[in-house]
Amino acid sequence: MANVGAVVNGIRNIMRQDRGISGDAQRLEQLGWMLFLKIMDDKDKELEVIKDNYVSVIPEKFQWRNWATDPEGITGDELLNFIDNNSEKEHEKGLFSSLRNLTKKNSSKRAILVQEVFEGNNNYMKSGYELRKVINKLNEIDFTKSEDKHVFGNIYETILQELRDAGNKGEYYTPRAVTQLMTMLTNPKLGDKVLDPAAGTGGFLTAAIDHVREHFVKTVDDEAILQNSITGWELKPVAYVLGLTNLILHEMELPDYHYIDSLKKEYNSIGKKDKVDVILANPPFGASIADGVETNFPANYRCKESADLFIVLMIQLLKDNGKCAIVLPDGSITGEGIKSRIREKLLTECNLHTIIRLPQSTFFPATVSTNLLFFEKGTPTKEIWYYEHKLPEGQKSYSKLKPIRFEEFNPIIEWWNNRVESEFAYKINIDDLKEWDLNVTNPNKKEDAKKSPKQLYTLFENSQNNINKEIKDLTNEILEKPTGILESIVNQNIELFKNKESVSVLRDAILLEAITGNLTASWREKNKCKETVIELLKKVKLEKDKKIRNKEVKPDKEKRTIDKSIIPYEIPNVWQFAYFNDISNFQIGKTPATKQMEYWSQGEFNWLSIGDMEHYGSILHTSKKISKDAVKEVFNGQLPSPAETLLMSFKLTIGKMSITKIATYHNEAIISIYPYTQIERDYLFYLLPIVTKLSISKKVLMGQTFNSKSLTDLIVPIPPHEEQLEIIKRVKHLMDKCKNIEGKLIEHNELSMQLIQSAIENHFVKN
Fold it and tell me: Which of 448, 583, 642, 689 makes a 20 to 30 Å CA pair with 490?
């Protein structure tokens, strides 16, 4: 079985080296069509065995097995020409041009599906050599093996989640826990026609497939019925290809999944054959619609809000007694005018029996309040049950690190078939609604009682004890026998932690343990890496030498070896130190002259300074932009640092690390870092700050700042690749715990202020 996680990480690192890819969306699109082709070829091989006379719709020349599987196969410009050639001569056409015109020769459903994928996607990679590396990495995964498929399925979920950062306005990808809940409560059965008209990456459809297979599919005939009962429509090309691939991975032989704009489907032409039993969807909301689309709908319901139009469309698409579960923002369940008329249509033509209200942060990073609406077509609504889902105890919001979990919905699942009113659940009669407004306040909600000083003091004490326990648990988790700074924290300085700034001491301690190998000492004892760090660094050198030959990297002025006298700390004997510029290519930024207004007044390109960076965070926007003139004259026309690039400050504020999620230029106090393939970006992300700090403190580098020469001379400890991945995993886990302690310290200090305020108020009341 392949180490699928390592393969996917490796692909990411390779793509970061290619200047043609400038963001998450492009990286995912690139990966999407390649995954699709490989998986299609694996499926074709299976069908060739199972079915007599089966012939793939993909021309033999472009089948993955015939051009991609040989690791020493075509590469460089020859590979790019094979993929991108747009020649009018049939025999010279490249892969994209041929597959985009596939139905001219083959009108089968499978051919249409392949054509739709390549009509909506592009090859962004500009280096045929990097593209070959990605292909070779993909070939390490065997999708015909169930274990590889299973592992990849889990990783695939994380790939889909990344679209949240890559998406445009209105595109909020549904957490898996929510799709599972909505599917379970709607309970699609074998033979039910299931539709998602805004299918995105296929989350609802795969949830429906899993649900029906688990509960109803018992025979081969049952599976055949399922294969013909799942339909999806999607407009966005990246989401479409990823969703299609997702369905194929879920054993849908020929997915009924189409690259179309659902809102352009002619409303009045929707007939009996088009109607379905179940709709599960999270339609885009707050998103713009194509000009004139609203005229496709009855005049009474025409508007520019996509979510509202989807409500009208879904009602039309449902059979009588058909069931629907959809995600809607607060803006769609309240409001006057057309919004009110659409809700009237919903409530008079359907039984809207349940609304589950979710916290604002459920669809992180979006902060819009959302609701899950469950209704059945055919009978009007008489009463509506509401259930307010609350955040877990002690949690202020959902986040990337703390997403909503399915287990949180257990109270809702228990309540669903045995409904009683409570602090969280309430019932509203339809006659009590004003203007069909569904944004109804919970009448059973209890107001928080004002706490006495004694109660607050008890809470304060418990809070302090919890913080102390978490710190001890954390340090004990790091090492069985904490050493150095950690030992001091555990045994002497627990009281140090009085505010969030003090957690930085703990962070430094963790990072110190990581770069000296102590953090993974027990892991090393149990695991032997397949490749030594010596072999790894040889590969890195070969890659660097190749880039030098291709003039992508400047050659070193002199050959250098690391003198033992300048080694700042001890590392395990299976690790090695390496110079920073031998394991990565880095680029220093520039600042256009502020007095030249033409560089700034019509800015269209992102440009950032240290102030725009969040330490150990992501860059989603910049405070300033620069003009085309600045790019041409100051940056000499060079491309910006693409999304997913690692950035580090190295002047004044040293060692501030961020990962940019947007293509951006930056100033001369920041470097863009492009690690070579065998060096994990996130290893440098977490560990470079402590490496730079120790280099200065140990006088490996003189002065309190860096320049190009001192960055080149920076010495970085390098473990084998597998251990790098383990360090990343452990450090990330421990950093998350530190962040949690920070949050509790903030709450603790707020509690302290409440206690003081309460004590003062109580004193004056008595006197």
Answer: 689
Residues with Cβ < 8 Å from 17, sequence gap 6 or more? 127, 130, 674, 677
Name the residue range of residue 539's domain.
532-719
CA distance 165 to 171: 10
Same domain, 190 and 131: no
- Backbone φ and ψ of 37, nearest 5°: -60, -45
Q: How many domains does the chain have?
A: 4
Same domain, 185 and 214: yes
pLDDT given at position 150: 52
Indicate the length of the chain as a whole number. Answer: 767
Between the two ends of the chain, the Cα-to-Cα distance in Å is: 75
Residues 6+ apart with CB under 8 A from 282: 172, 173, 174, 178, 198, 200, 204, 326, 327
Dump the DSSP string for 418-442: S----SSEEEEEGGG-STT------
Which pLDDT value is given to residue 498? 56
Cα 450 versus chain centre, distance: 41
Residue 156 and residue 269 share a domain? no
The answer to whether residue 570 is domain-embedded is yes
- CA–CA dist 714, 94 (Å, integer): 45
Residue 138 vs residues 158, 537, 742: alpha-carbon distances, Å: 17, 22, 40
The pLDDT value given to residue 233: 95
List, for the chain, all residue ranges whose pLDDT scores fall below the cut of 70: 1-5, 23-25, 144-172, 286-288, 365-367, 446-457, 459-460, 463-464, 467-468, 470-502, 696-706, 743-744, 746-751, 754-755, 757-767
Threshold 0.90, pTM exceeds:
no
| 275 within some domain | yes
Q: What is the DSSP string of 490-552?
A: HHT-GGG-SSGGGHHHHHHHHHHHHHTT-TTHHHHHH---SS-HHHHHHHHHHHHHHHHHTTS
pLDDT at 47: 85
Contact 728, 682 (CB under 8 A): yes
CA distance 123 to 540: 26
Give the residue from 224, 228, 168 showing the smallest Cα distance to 200. Answer: 168
Choose one of 161, 176, 209: the last residue of a domain. Answer: 161
pLDDT at 472: 67
Tokens 């294969």, residue located: 227
517 phi-psi bin (left φ>0, alpha ψ -120 to 50, beta other):
left
How are beta strands 653-660 and 624-626 bridged, if at all?
Answer: unpaired
CB of 377 closer than 8 Å to CB of 419: no
Q: In this structure, is residue 312 part of a structural domain? A: yes
In a domain, 364, yes or no: no
pLDDT tens-digit map of 651-694: 877 888 999 988 899 999 899 999 998 899 999 999 998 888 88
Determine the pLDDT at residue 166.
45
Q: Which pLDDT value is given to residue 156? A: 58
